Amino acid sequence: MKTTDGPDDPWTGVADPIPGARTEPGPDESGAREHPQDGDRREPGERLAEEARKLAEAVVGQLGEVRQRVVEPLLRKHPEAAAHLGAAGFELMAAYRSFVADKERRWASRAAPAQRVDLDAPDDEPRGT
């Protein structure tokens, strides 16, 4: 199977590289370990929480850089488009709220089917001990 990762890749140089992205995995990114390193006595949940925190920090950092490199220049060049997109976002949110409120109203107003249970009716069988 031929891949396009290399000098023959037609997309090479078309897009700007992602800031902070690595082309090859670093020493700590070669894959998941089955067993914790010697000396790491934390619970698996603690290690998972730490990795999730690191991932969230990396994602937030990347989003901030994308905003600076892509979004902000577009907003400066086309402020009228930004205003229209903002208004469209508010309209979409209002439509969504209306839709959800209508569904909640219908769901909450449904009368649940009820079965009448007569607790005072005499039993045919005596209650035993």
From TrEMBL:
InterPro entries for the chain: DUF5304
Biased composition (Basic and acidic residues): 30-47
Disordered as annotated region, ranges: 1-47, 107-129
Protein name: DUF5304 domain-containing protein
